[in-house]
Amino acid sequence: MGKIRDKNLPDEVLVVGAILGDLQSFDTLVMRYRSAAYRVAQSVAGTELAEDAVQEALLLAYKALPSIEEPSKFAAWLYAITRHVALRMSQRTRQEISKRVELDEALLEHSNALARPLAPNDAPIDMFDTGWVRAAIDSLDEDYRLILKLRYYDEMPLKRISGFLDLPLSTVKWRLYRAKQMLREQLKPENEGLRRRVKIKN
């Protein structure tokens, strides 16, 4: 079988190509859904673990490709794998943190330097404080926030979002519409001038 080069081919064609050994077909699928998988992993496990979760999910997906029952449902299948991996990583991290608590408390009890509050110049910079719009988006419920980010941050077509989340296209359209309504509500009235300049496109 020759290498598949058309990046607009349906998922099921690319899945079959990848199963038959065409790595370029899988690369195309990765390019198509990697950013969406990252959004899901980030929402479940947080930013620090998201990239590792996506890498592991993609590796698992590649190894399990021959077992996929419906190649046309690849996107939803990858979503489920990514969410599962991110949940597992998040739970593992929480367990590791809980095991460190006793040691941390012991260190704080015996170290004045560690126990003293940070001075203003010592305080870490919040790298994720990128402005009022991002804060407003992040305050939305996950169902709305994820679709909004997939559509406008990652520029994913609505049909592809529908496939990835395994939701009817009408549901995706409705959630996107409601997300934009809620976001506009968040950004007014005190920020009305800024809201006009940072217009939420349809």
Describe this protein's structure.
- With 202 residues, this protein is mostly helical.
- The chain has 2 domains: 1-114, RNA polymerase sigma factor, region 2, helix turn helix motif (Rna Polymerase Sigma Factor, Chain: A, Orthogonal Bundle); 131-202, Arc Repressor Mutant, subunit A.
- The protein is built from 10 helices and no strands.
- Helix 2 (23-45) packs antiparallel against helix 3 and helix 7 crosses helix 9 (169-186).
- It is globular.
- The two termini are 42 Å apart.
What is the CATH top level name of the largest domain? Mainly Alpha
- Mean pLDDT across the residues is 77
> What is the fourth-level CATH superfamily of the largest domain?
RNA polymerase sigma factor, region 2, helix turn helix motif
The CATH architecture designation of the largest domain is Orthogonal Bundle
What string gives the helices and strands in order?
HHHHHHHHHH
Briefly note the structural class of the backbone.
Answer: mainly alpha
Q: Spans of 5+ residues with little confidence (pLDDT < 50)? A: 110-130, 193-202
Helix content: 55-70%
Question: Largest sheet at a glance?
Answer: none
Oligomer: single chain
Tell me the number of strands.
0
